[in-house]
Every structure is written in C-alpha cells, then in structure tokens.
Amino acid sequence: QTAAAKEDDPNVELMWRIKREQMEHLKQIHENLRRCTRNYDRISKNVTDLMKKMMTGSKEAIASAKETVEGMVETFQGDSDAIVHLINIKEKDEGIYHHSLNVSVLALMLGRKVRLTASEMHELGMAALFHDIGKNRIEKKVLKKKGPLTKAESAIIQLHPQYGIDTLAKSGVREVGVIRAVKEHHEH
Questions:
Q1: What is the Cα–Cα distance from 126 to 131, expressed in whole angstroms?
Q2: pLDDT range class, residue 92, cuts 50, 70, 90
Q3: Chain centroid, CA 47 distance in Å
Q4: Where are the beta strands (DSSP E) in the chain?
Q5: d(Cα 19, Cα 26) in Å, to the nearest integer?
Q6: pTM over 0.70, yes/no
Q7: What is the pLDDT of residues 129-159, one digit of tens each?
Q8: Which of 154, 153, 111 is nearest to 129 (CA)?
Q9: SS3 content of the chain, % helix, strand, coil (to 5)
Q10: What is the Cα–Cα distance from 25 to 160, expressed in whole angstroms?
C-alpha cells in the first residue's frame, strides 16, 4: 500500500486516535502526581512544624493545624490513585509526622467518599492528624526497637493515647470528637 492509502485506512486512523488519547491520559496522570507531590511536600513541612509546636503547648499550633487540615481537604480531592501512589512512595522515610499526615489524608479521602459534612471532615482530619501525637513523649529507642518489646516497654507505648490527650489539652484543643479519637484509637 502507498503512504496515502495507509493514511486513509480507518483502522490506522483509529489506532492513532487511541494512541493520542492514551498519551493524553498518561500526561494527565503525571501532572496530577506532580501536583500532589508538590502539595504533599508543602503540607508535610507544615505538619512537621505544627507538631513540634503542639509539643510545646503552643496555642498557635491549633490555628495552624486547622489551616493545614482545610488545605488537605481542598488539595487532596483529586485523583485518589495519584494520592495513594504518593503515600506509598513517601512511606519509606515515614516517621511519626509523616505517618500522621498519611493517616489524615487517607481518612479525609474516606470521609469524602461517605459524604461527610465540612465540619465532620475538619474533625476527622484533626483527629487523624493528632492520633499518635502522644508518641512524641516516648523515647525513640522504644518506638523504633526491632524485635519484641518488654512488658515495661509495651506499657509505656500503651500510654501514648493519654499522652496525646494531655498534649491536646495543653495546646487548647477542645473538639470532643478529636479528643475522643486520640483517646480511643487503640481501644479494640
């Protein structure tokens, strides 16, 4: 066949159209991932700073936390696949702060799926963000210990929900749902 005949072939035209659509779809996925990565990194820095402030009892940390959660609600409403992929690749360097951010992002994704109200989303995001804040009062060598914990070490780690409540109270957190979630996140 001649080049002109190939261009007029409907099957060839269909293949090129499908290829262009696939390339556009991949381009969109990459752009969503880049946008999510930028936002995740920015929010991650905010979370690290606000958690450190929370540990000092800073009242301004609560205002910062509320802004951060609002930002997460707005930012991570997009492509769920990109967000989950991002959490998976960022997990490798995960500490307490990144774990808290990831739990909060995933909780907000679920909250959106079940159509929580704005107020419920805010409370859910705050609760997920602060659920493990009490671990900051536990020695790192106990938290990062490889192998089984002693009974004494287990007892110390089991105190982290109470430590979390104490930290929230010192910083001025008053939302009952947030306090309850921090207190009860290991109940069962």
A1: 8
A2: low
A3: 10
A4: none
A5: 11
A6: yes
A7: 999 999 999 998 999 899 999 999 999 999 9
A8: 111
A9: 80, 0, 20
A10: 45
